[in-house]
């Protein structure tokens, strides 16, 4: 037995260490996703018997005006959230300088990352309060009246996205700071000898070395925008009148509050397909860039 273990130790021990994580991934992610897809073809209240309805849930979904409102809001989240990687990079470049007092600045920018999404939502709900919030104080100092952003169907989604951007920018900042600390010093010095400074140094020397970090930052930012739920739940509950709802929140609302688990699973399936298509396209683009064929 000992000789058998010794002979196969090259693959046996890595397999034993990887097995718990792989099993957990298949049970929690893959199996649950497959079960959710199966439920989307049934009418089910979560308690009684399932009733097969085929693609009726999807047909009803594509005729539901609220679905298109949620999809539009997800697109708004996606577009505005794309500001997080460049802002994170800019802050990382700032705090990476060797200047006095920047350690405190790093801590201040890092704080949103360690706060829960619920806490961030509560903070910004107070911030947007048109009567006693910080925004109201700013407008009052200018002898103006603060807008009730969370009650305005036209601006509520933008207001919630700004709240979500706060911790997302911090996350991107941490990623880019790690990348900046791993830059090739020899390339930096060679560029300085050749006279590269400022934007030329950034564009031709620094950014190419941050390509992998940038890939991770953009991918996680897009996924975060598409699966946005916490901020909407805490700050607006999808209101007013469903105008700030996103696909993830609509899925929760239909499944948990309306007991339409099949319909909610159909929304989850559509959201999964959108994410999968983006990730596949993004990976394809990155591979083409790496191979120099883009």
Description:
There is one protein chain. The chain is mainly α and 294 residues long. It has one domain (64-291): MetI-like fold (Orthogonal Bundle), CATH 1.10.3720.10. The chain is built from 15 helices and two strands. The N and C termini lie far apart (54 Å). The model has no long low-confidence stretch (mean pLDDT 87). This is Carbohydrate ABC transporter permease. Keywords: Cell membrane, Membrane, Transmembrane, Transmembrane helix, Transport. It comes from Kushneria aurantia.
Please give the number of β-strands. Answer: 2
CATH level 1 class label: Mainly Alpha
Could you name the ranges where pLDDT drops below 50 across 5 or more consecutive residues? none
> How many distinct folded domains?
1
The portion of residues forming beta strands comes to under 5%
Structural class: mainly alpha
- Computed over alpha carbons, the radius of gyration is 24 Å
User: What is the fold named in CATH at topology level?
Assistant: MetI-like fold
**End-to-end C-alpha gap:** 54 Å
Instruction: Determine the mean pLDDT.
Output: 87
Fraction of helical residues:
over 70%
Largest sheet: 2 strands, antiparallel
Assign the CATH superfamily. Answer: MetI-like
- Helix and strand succession? HHEEHHHHHHHHHHHHH
Sequence of strands across the biggest β-sheet: 1-2
CATH architecture: Orthogonal Bundle
Total helical elements: 15
Assembly form of the protein: single chain
Overall form: globular
Subcellular location: Cell membrane
Transmembrane segments: 12-34, 75-95, 107-128, 155-180, 201-226, 261-284
Keywords: Cell membrane, Membrane, Transmembrane, Transmembrane helix, Transport
Family: Belongs to the binding-protein-dependent transport system permease family.
């Amino acid at each position: 037995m000992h000789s058998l273990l010794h002979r196969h130790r090259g693959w046996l021990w890595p397999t034993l260490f990887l097995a718990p994580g792989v099993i957990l991934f298949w049970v929690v992610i893959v199996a649950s996703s497959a079960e959710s897809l199966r439920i989307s073809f049934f009418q089910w209240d979560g308690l009684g018997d399932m009733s097969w309805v085929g693609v009726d849930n999807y047909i009803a979904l594509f005729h539901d005006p609220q679905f298109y409102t949620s999809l539009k809001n997800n697109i708004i989240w996606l577009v505005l959230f794309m500001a997080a990687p460049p802002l994170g990079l800019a802050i990382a470049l700032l705090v990476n300088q060797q200047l006095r007092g920047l350690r405190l600045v790093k801590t201040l920018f890092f704080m949103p990352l360690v706060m829960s999404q619920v806490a961030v939502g509560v903070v910004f709900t107070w911030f947007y309060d048109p009567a006693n919030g910080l925004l109201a104080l700013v407008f009052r100092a200018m002898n103006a009246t603060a807008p009730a952003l969370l009650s305005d169907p036209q601006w509520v989604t933008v207001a919630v996205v700004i709240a979500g951007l706060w911790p997302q920018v911090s996350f991107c900042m941490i990623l880019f700071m790690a990348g900046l600390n791993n830059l090739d010093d020899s390339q930096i010095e060679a560029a300085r000898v050749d006279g590269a400074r400022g934007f030329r140094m950034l564009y031709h020397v620094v950014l190419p070395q941050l390509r992998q970090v940038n890939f991770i930052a953009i991918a996680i930012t897009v996924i975060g925008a598409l699966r946005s739920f916490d901020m909407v739940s805490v700050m607006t509950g999808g209101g007013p009148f469903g105008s700030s709802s996103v696909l993830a929140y609509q899925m929760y609302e239909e499944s948990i509050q309306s007991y339409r688990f099949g319909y909610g699973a159909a929304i989850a399936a559509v959201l999964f397909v959108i994410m999968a298509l983006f990730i596949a396209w993004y990976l394809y683009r990155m591979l083409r860039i790496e191979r120099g064929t883009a």
